[in-house]
Structures are given as structure tokens and as C-alpha cells.
Amino acid sequence: MPSLLTRRHVIAGIAGAAGLAGTAGVVAVAANRNTPKLVDPHSEAIHRAELARQRPGAATVRATLTPRPVTLDLGGVTVDTWGYAEDAPAPLIRAKAGDRLRVDVVNELPVDTSVHWHGIALRNDMDGVPGVTQDPIGAGGRFTYDFTAPHPGTYFYHPHSGVQLDRALYGVLIVDDPNDAGRYDQEWIVVLDDWVDGTGHTPDDVLAALGDGTAGMHGGHDTPGMDHGGMPMDDGNMESMTSPLLGGAGDVDYPHYLINGRVPAAPVTLTAQPRQRVRIRLVNAASDTAFRVALGEHQLTVTHSDGFPVVPDVTDALVVGMGERVDVEVVVADGVFPLVAVAEGKTGQALAVVRTGGGSPPSAEVRAAELDRRVILTNQLRAADNVRLPQREPDRTHDLVLGGGMMPYRWTINGKTFTDAEPLLVGEGERVRLRMINQSMMFHPMHVHGHTFALGDGGARKDTVIVTPHQTVTVDLDADNPGQWMTHCHNIYHAETGMMINLAYQL
Fold it and tell me: What string of DSSP letters covers 417-471?
């Protein structure tokens, strides 16, 4: 049984470059007489909730993940990194709603790791957050994740340990809906990523440079950033990576942006027949980058956001924040077309080629005209009628004031970093309202573990939402999955340096 540590003990011995040791993988159960008693991840309430998710006759889907040092070919760019396989993304895991997943993790890394099942409303003790729901999986260790996947949708998996997400440790998990069978002629899974590992710097180097203030001056420092295979970083006071849609758009201008593990000079090719209906499952697995996505000479119909159906919305392009998943539908024309994912507010893009007929492939620098037409954020989507959260007044409201900045590199919720924050208390059965108030100059894709929430009145059902500078986003959720659940910015560098808090059920 994992030992739940106190917030002061967990930081001992875990190196955090910004001085907030390992906060994206550790966690906070305060040990004093005044602290409310919280639902333990191994309590009867968690067992009861899991039993309610199970269905008779459900299949068991088995998989093995072996995180380890690997060498990847990104398309003429060879990198040494950590991954689950010799390709990125890692192998697809696929199940049906209600199936049981048993995934063995064999850790061949030289450090601790974990696996978080992003977006799945699963049992709390399988959520993959070291120090909160389990002990870390030590070097040479093993752990079996065993849970029911209750809701259909597009999800993904990745570590919740340090900045390991910013390597090749991610893969897609699809939970199929039997009612969707036969609606599409083709399905493409498109994973977006920003890449630095093995290009002369590691994600831990990036975190260290951000933390000690040497990362951002665009000149003079031999840190990730100049013309030596590194990447520029934001200069702290004047946002140099900005977007008219997002405001401050990130801290790291990466040397490479990828679709399905390939750089634009050697893109993957997605094939279909002319006039076929294609479902594209977009997953943003990046650590610091939102992408503006468009398919040249086509419009996209958005059908799902974070796994849940929305009222179909036709657009030329859409922005997908870190941790978000968006499903779109398109009837493809005859020819060769660029599927472009521009790094929003940064320099560079990712590219895939869509081929349904003859023609020359687009150049790596192609600019699809649709990128500059109608562009939507997922915040604008409306939930489909069958997944709307029933109207109900909240039993409890929590404000999450998002703050922080580049110098010092420190990101907070309610003025505190994770190691000092008191948990947000909720009770099972309550309707809980979270008001996310962004007082910083950066956008934050805020993610809640173990739940989906509703945006505003009739807004999309989601688990990750973009909150732009000086904006307040209000979401409601039903507290129907007891346990302790991380709520954090999905910019991995913001989470690792403090922008995370525990949404905790109390007894």
C-alpha cells in the first residue's frame, strides 16, 4: 500500500531545479490536528465507486509499458531520450467503454516514474500520482494499473513524475463507443508534440535554466536558446512568445514540433480515398505549446472535446491546448493536402501529409490559408444534449487564482505553490464550482484529474480548459469519484514549479 506523505516530507531528497522539488509528482496531505480527514486512495469509498463502474461480461484489455532509454529517429533527426517504445508516440491502447484495463509497467529508467491516465474518471488509487495515489515506481520496479474505463473518448497516458512528459513517454488510449461504430470510413490519430530532448539539452536542463533565470535573455547565455541546437525562451518581463488568442503563449520555443513523432521535413502520410469521411483524433501531448490546427483546402467539423460529444461546430482551424483532445470530422477531397499544426505564438510548426490521390507533397514551411480564417478555441463549444450536466446550484465553490511569472520562475494557485497549498475540500455527492481566475500574463490549460466538468451554462464537458490572461473560467463538476485528485496547469514547467493543488474528498 502506498504511504501518503506529508507535504514537507515529500520534497526532501527530490531535486527540483526551481527549488520546489518534484512538485508535479508529489503531494500534499498535511499532518496536523486541524487538518480535515481525507478519503484515503485505498478506502472503501474508492472500492465502492469502482464496483459501480464495472459491467457484467466486460472484457479485460492487457498491455505492458516499459519506460526505458531509447534512440528515436524523428525523421532525419536522431535523439537519445526516454520512451515506452522505439517510436513516438507509444503503442496505442484501445478498449471499449466499461472494459477493465490491466497495464503492467516495468521501469527500466534510471529514475522513479509513474503513469497517469489523462482524462479517465478511474479509481483514485490508479491515477498515477506518486505521493498521492501510489508510491513512485522505482528504477527496476514494477506496478500494475488495474481499472475500469467508464466513458468512451480520446485519452492519453503519460508520467506524473517531474518533467518526464517532455520526453517520448506518452501514448494514446482510446475508449470506443459501440454507438459510434460505422460512422466513419477512416480514423487518423494525430499526436502533437514539442521536442527538445536529445538535441543538446534535456527537459531537466530546461527546468534548471528557467529556475535559475539564465534561460531567457535571447543572447549572451550558453543555455537552451540560441543557434546551437537549443531553443529561445521567454525573457520574463516582456512576453516574447505571444498570441492574439492566448496572450503569453509559452516559455520555450522548441527546436522541433512533431506530428506522430516526425519533424515537418519528413512528415507522416495519412491516406484515404476521395470523399471518404474521416475521424481525426487530435491529442496535444506537448509540454509548453498550444497548436493551431488546420487541413489545407478543407473545413473541419468538431464533434468531441476531451472525449465527450459536442454540438458539431464547423471551422477552418482550431486551437488545441496542452492536455486537450479534440475529435474532428472531415470529408476529404481528391489530392494531397497539408495538415498543419502551428506552434501558437511561437516560431515553427508540425506537419502531416494527407494523401487521397496524385500530387506533390507540400513543403515543410507550407502555410495553409485556413489558419487565418475562422479559428476557434474549445471553450466556445457547446455540450451535446446527451452529455449536458443537469442544472443545479453548487453546494460548494472554490476560487483558483492563477498567478506567477518568469522572474523568479514560480507559478501559484491562490498565491501558494503546491508544497504549501491547502487542499480544496469537497464532499461526495456535491455539485462543486471551480472559478479559475488568471491573474498572470500567460495562458494556462487547467486540468482536473478523475472528473469531467461543464463549462458555464451548457458548455462543453471537459477535463482540461484554456484560461487566458485576465480571464475567469467557471466550471461545474459532480463530486462522484471519491479520492484525492490533482488540479493543475498542464504546462509541465508551470505544474512542476508550483501551479497545482489537491481537490480532496473529505470524510
Answer: -GGGPPPEEE-TT-EEEEEEEE-SSB-EEEEETT--EEETTTBPEESEEEE-TT-
Distance in angstroms (rounded) separating the CA atoms of residues 231 and 238: 17
Q: Read off the amino acid at residue 97.
A: A
Asked if 23 contacts 419 with a C-beta cutoff of 8 angstroms, the reply is yes
Each residue's pLDDT tens digit, 73-95:
999 999 999 999 999 999 999 99
Q: Would you say residue 344 has pLDDT above 80? A: yes
Residue 196 DSSP code: -
pLDDT per position as a tens digit, 241-253 = 999 999 999 999 9
Which one, of 340, 405, 424, 335, lies nearest residue 375 by Cα?
340
CB 378 within 8 A of CB 460: yes
Tally of helices (H runs) and strands (E runs) in the chain:
4, 34
Instruction: Please state, rounded to an integer, the average pLDDT across all residues of the chain.
Output: 89
Q: Which pLDDT value is given to residue 214?
A: 57
Strands 500-505 and 424-426 turn out to be parallel
Q: Which residue has the cell 527500466?
A: 108
Q: What is the pTM of this model?
A: 0.91
pLDDT in tens, 44-56: 999 999 999 999 9
How far apart CA 14 and CA 181 sit, in angstroms, is 47
Return the closest-CA partner of residue 495 out of 138, 33, 16: 16
CA atoms 370, 373, 378, 382: torsion sign: negative
* Phi, then psi, of 157 in degrees rounded to 5: -130, 150
Tell me, what's the pLDDT at 28? Answer: 39
The residue count of the chain comes to 507
pLDDT at 233: 55
Q: What are the CB-based long-range contacts (under 8 Å, 24+) for 394-397?
A: 394/430, 394/431, 394/432, 394/433, 394/476, 395/427, 395/430, 395/431, 395/432, 396/425, 396/426, 396/427, 396/430, 396/431, 396/432, 396/433, 397/432, 397/433, 397/434, 397/435
Domains by residue range for the chain, with CATH: 7-173 (2.60.40.420), 386-505 (2.60.40.420)
Three-class secondary structure assignment of 264-290: CCCCCEEECCCCCEEEEEEEECCCCCC
3-state DSSP assignment of residue 28: coil
Beta bridge partners of 473: 436
Q: Secondary structure of the chain: what % helix, strand, coil (to 5)?
A: 10, 40, 50
* Cell triple for 339: 495538415
